[in-house]
Specification:
With about 180 residues, the protein is an alpha+beta fold. The protein has one domain. It has 3 helices and 4 strands. It has a 4-stranded antiparallel β-sheet. It starts with a strand and ends in a 6-residue tail after the last strand.
Length: about 180
């Protein structure tokens, strides 16, 4: 079993009010019931500033300092926050992530393609890449459900949009915690 990273991000859904309405109008992703993503603009990390203690538990490589190795620590760190998602993620899994990690408190939601440089989702925050995927290919959470489809879209982005920075993406497998309470 692989060990995921954990991150707390803002929830983005219809109860986000006008921001949600404007997003749906702009994106055309009318099938979405929410966005569950690592996109730093749509679902920003909720920990604004790292504390000295955070550095004992967070990921300290590849600019992933918003991610944590220790779920229990992260849950304690964000226990007073509301309207958040606690995500477990695997970066660039080599195969279907559902076979690589499972935990009873988490539900697998799908795969996101996040631009390496800016942290923007190629799936939900770039206005669409019609030669790589159709809006209808995305789940109600704005993700790709199948590993093979996600890898194919990742490759099609590179093939059809070689000069587009948003097309240079990492593939992330995403699970969401069903209950958000510290042990």
């Amino acid at each position: 079993m692989e060990t995921p990273y954990f991150i707390a991000v803002e929830a983005f859904a219809p109860d986000s009010g006008q921001a949600w309405q404007e997003y749906i109008a702009w994106s055309g992703l009318t099938q979405l019931t929410e966005v569950v993503s690592l996109d730093i603009l749509l679902c920003a990390p909720v920990i604004d500033e790292l504390t000295a203690e955070d550095w004992n538990y967070n990921v300290q490589e590849n600019y992933l300092t918003d991610y944590f190795h220790d779920l229990d620590y992260l849950l304690r760190r964000v226990d007073t926050l509301t309207s958040i998602n606690i995500l477990a993620v695997l970066l660039n899994p080599e195969s279907d992530a559902r076979r690589l990690w499972a935990e009873d408190r988490f539900q697998f939601l799908g795969y996101d393609l996040i631009e390496r440089t800016t942290g923007i989702s190629a799936l939900t925050n770039c206005g669409g890449f019609d030669q790589a995927f159709a809006n209808e290919d995305l789940s109600p959470a704005g993700l790709l459900a199948a590993y093979d489809d996600a890898r194919e879209v990742q490759n099609l982005l590179k093939t059809h949009y070689p000069d587009e920075p948003h097309a240079d993406c990492d593939l992330w497998a995403i699970w969401r915690m069903d209950r958000v309470s510290a042990p």
